[in-house]
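Our preliminary data section would be incomplete without showing what the modeling component actually yields. Below, a chain of 255 amino acids is followed by its predicted structure, encoded as tokens that our downstream tools consume directly.
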Amino acid sequence: MSSSTHTTTIHKSHEHPQGSCPVTGKTYNFCPAQAGDARSPCPALNALANHGYLPRDGKNIGVWDLVRGLRDGYHLSTVLACILSFGSMLMLGQFRCLSLSDLARHNMIEHNASLVHKDDLNGAEYAPTRVDRKLLAALCAEGGKVIPDRMTLEDAARIRIKREAECGKLDGVHAEVARGEIVIAIGVLGGKDAAKNGVNISALQEWMRHERLPTGWKPDHTQGLYQTYKMAKFVRERMRAAEAQQSSTKPAESH
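Predicted structure:
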């Protein structure tokens, strides 16, 4: 990863012809989306495009572009990157290439009860892609309950329960997708000890709000499939335990 990844504010609007940036050149410097660029509801992929690990216009992305971007930008293992990339193409029913905006098609990969996006309530084919600042603030406020200033897996389980209580339960597939999203974010940005210590909340906030790799962040490990599975299982079990406890207390509260 380039040492200049997090530098530079782009002052003038410009285009990203054929997915390249005339301002940043071939570096991985940050450049926000410009007019005409495609972006998704996924901050992780948007950040990769904003840093040039994916085509900066967010268009005509092949499956191997996704694999390389996830490996190079976040140090995902090849196996995990392939599962996510090929799985996304399969769920979307697109087998040659995609634009990031395709990921906003409602109830394909995108789902209600997102941590930082409003639900698609009007039956639109495409869900909102902009991060909702109130939801992001609520997410960050939910962290720090276990370890000060850090979002842990325990915190992630609690906020997932809260969002699904507000928006409705997800089906099995999208529940796994939703858990995987926050688990991978914590695992990648939090470092090799993230399963225990979580991720710095300010780093998570910067990444989600600005769709930019956090200032000073560099991957210190390869995030693999088994590690991700164990973290997602932990969150799933914590959610089930908390929901079971809530159910057991309801009769007592009704008297």
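The CA atoms of residues 248 and 254 lie 11 Å apart. The longest helix spans residues 225-254. Preliminary results of this kind motivate Aim 1 of the renewal.
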